[in-house]
Amino acid sequence: MRPEDPKQRQRDAHRADDPASGPLTTDQGVVVDHTDDSLAVGERGPTLLEDFHFREKITRFDHERIPERVVHARGAGAYGFFEPYHSCAEFTKAAFLQDPSVRTPVFVRFSTVQGPRGSADTVRDVRGFATKFYTSEGNYDLVGNNFPVFFIQDGIKFPDFVHAVKPEPHNEIPTGQSAHDTLWDFVSLQPETLHTVFWLMSDRAIPRSYRTMQGFGVHTFRFVNAEGRGTFVKFHWKPKLGLHSLVWDEAQEIQGRDPDYNRRDLWDMIEAGHYPEWEFGVQLVPEEDEHAFDFDLLDPTKIIPEEQVPVRPIGRMVLDRNPDNFFAETEQIAFHTANVVPGIDFTNDPLLQARNFSYLDTQLIRLGGPNFAQLPVNRPVVPVRNNQRDGYHQSRIHSGTNYSENSLGGGCPAVAGTADPSAFRHLQERVDGRKIRKRSASFQDHWTQPALFWRSMSDWEKQHMIDAFRFELGKCVSMRVRERTVEQLTLVDHDLAAAVAEGIGVDLPERRDATPQPAPSPALSFENMKGDGSIATRQIAVLVADGVDSAQLAAVRDVLETAGGAVVDELAAHDGNVRDTDGAAHPVNRALPTVASVLYDAVLVPGGPDSALSVAADDAAVRFIRNAYRHGKPIGGLGAGAGVIGGLALDGIRVAGEGDGTVSDRGVVTDLTSGGSPEDFGRAFTEAVAAHRHWGREPVNG
Ligand code: HDE
Question: Which residue ranges does the record annotate as region Disordered (predicted)?
């Protein structure tokens, strides 16, 4: 039994009572006996206008779409809960951050940014990570991304940035891609974009799964405690499974093989009971330290390095329920950065200030009027009492007066008394100044933090970034755009600029990078975010054929699935069954032609000489293993299966004599010479799978 969840109770009350039996009716409830032919004059004559059923059916169909989100149009979402580890009363009075025994329902929507609703999931892009907390004090929305920084500093530039990154206006190309002239033109002219562009060129921009990416609130917000004391706060979500991404070559292939890759993964894992989980963390800065940094806390293009201000874990979020209806819930959810609760407040970050205008405005057009908060997914779980009633799509029947103050309605709803602690009160920040349009001098360093990011990357991460810059700029037609971008890169790191310049046919620039360069922040590298060594939910492909050693395979599966929590799929040239070494029927999960190695995290070739021989002779199976190898994935071989891998002569791999049940530095694990038990092998393979990727194989991005 799940604990009582007020949001689920509310959803249940909103469920359509579509009758399980009874005839089809019109919207007016009139019974219909025929819906396949329109009313016409004779069998071959014209359709009649009086066919109200036909007209209603078509009209309703014509109006089934609402405008998609102008950005973040493609998304996937789920319900779940948040619970704090301990009370955060010292810093905030927010009710949902006080009591570890209180679970707050949430809905999270993940999204890509550039592409339309129907675009592919695995594009190089920022991912949205928006959370609506249905708290006991009203809705709180943390509308974040999977990068901790943003492309621009002031919201007034958002339309320019979005126009530049979106498909170009004359031909609406490219879809879901940043590799085009207008984006890089903008980047090369606006160095404030650079830091986020560095994140965009990293593997952070191609997450393996929504379940394995971080989330960030981006802006500096404020916590406010019961005494009215403010503390600056940055919000972080850390995935329990660790941070894992795709490689670019793989991401591109998945766009064709399974454009719904990330969406499907989220859905399937929740359906299977593998509930994704994130730890919620905060970086706290006392108000008096506002100016203690060499960047401005109000500048959304900057991070506070975790080494400088550690992330304190304060709670966890679990997503454990898929929506019932994509349109009603995932599409109609309306986030708004200004949806805050007592204890959380804004700062003067000019990007945040603009967002506080934009999100309400956009919902008015997208959801067709001002009553969208009545939609079930948007409704708070606490009472709503106010005088805002009329307008499109009012779905409730209010009675009584609709103005304040009133005496005729008994004075209801009355405002909370000044002593009522449950009311939201803005932090009384003192602000003096002249009305000006001017960027603060404290916002002007656009190069140190990209350098910090670059210098924090491991060698393979740097190589992937160089490849990404070369790919993106190599797609730009304008040589001037390429040159100007490289000029900007020289201000960050000369070696990077030189490597990119060489790949895109631009003259090698002079060394201009600033010294001293910032000290690396290890927390930024994938190398330090691998998770807890678990292989839970990793997808492992096992290539089988007639003659598979099913007893040995069962023992290994036991380690991987029962102990490790991995998801194992057995793939053969055809669906149905193969025969095992004893001639018994051995079930297959998927036919090889319907899948590809890019859809799995690891591949295993089990023993049984006949099975191994058939795998080695099957082009699709061999391609599968080679691709897994190219993409840095763990590869396992058992018995004769190890021989198959050895036989492929994968670059630099010696299997025979080396496969002793331990993890090789290239993530190839076999039991060939060890005589090791399947259990030993299972454990060693588990270690290789936990590492997720094994770099040092080249080329990985080819
Ligand atoms: Fe958004 N953004 N944004 N954004 N944003 C929207 O709201 C906007 C920004 C983010 O799953 C829109 O309902 C402006 C930063 C997410 O429904 C729109 C500015 C961050 C989502 C809008 C920003 C985000 C949106 C489009 C600069 C990360 C998807 C439809 C001032 C911290 C939410 C909608 C969902 C969506 C405006 C910048 C994240 C137009 C004006 C920074 C995750 O209102």
Answer: 1-29, 384-404
